[in-house]
Structure formats: C-alpha cells, structure tokens
Amino acid sequence: MPATKQIGSSLKVLLVSDLEKSQEYYREILGCEVTEWWVIRDGFTGLALKLLQAMSQEDVRPNPPAKGVKRSIDVYCYIEDWKALDDLYEEFTSNGASIVIEPWIDEDNGPWKEFAVKDPDGYCLAFGGTDGPKF
C-alpha cells in the first residue's frame, strides 16, 4: 500500500435524458455548483457528479434494488452530523425535491440517520451519517 494518499476524491458519472433539465435540478433543487462538466456541492470531496447526455432513454439506467432491499441507491453522501443532515433535508424539501426515503434512524448501526431524494431521471441520492463519535 502506498505511503502517501494518491486519490483525493472520486465522482459518479450519470447518463441523463435531458442534460439541461438535470443541470437545473441539481443547481436549483439540490443547491449544487453546476458547470459544463461538473455538478458539485461542498467541493470535489463532497457530492461530485458528472452528468452526460445519454444517446437514448434506454441508456438512462438507475441502479435496481439490491437483493433483500426495497429501494435502490445510486449515490450515497456521508453527512458529518444530524444537524447538517436535517438542514439538508429542510433545504431540499423547501426547494421541491422528491423525497423517496423520509428521514429515519437505524438504532442498531451507529445509530445512523438517513433520507433520500430522486432526480428527474430516477437516480436515487441518499444522505446519511452518525451523530457523534465516528466509527
């Protein structure tokens, strides 16, 4: 294993059906900085996506649910504490985001709190974290 950090961040590439509509959603609803190339919030170590115009609607394929899970998730964002998570939820709902998983707490894991939104193409973005010491 290398002695120094080599990867500073990564991003998810999403094929979208309407690039301008998707860019507007991420800018206006999720409060992201949107450029010709990137969709970012809180820098490249926060939410970082690259949206590309799909050649056809069939190429837009959000993840199916995993075995034993009811909902699929395409992008997961770790949030530092529950206050920040609650603030994001309030911001997104006031901006008109489609909430597909209402905030809930998993007492057995962390405890962990999360919620999720869907974008215009059905990609699910989840946001969650612990509220206290990191494990």
TrEMBL record:
Highest rank taxon of the organism: Bacteria
All copies of domain VOC, residue ranges: 6-130
PROSITE patterns xref list: VOC (PS51819)
Descriptive protein name: VOC family protein
Species for this entry: Exobacillus caeni
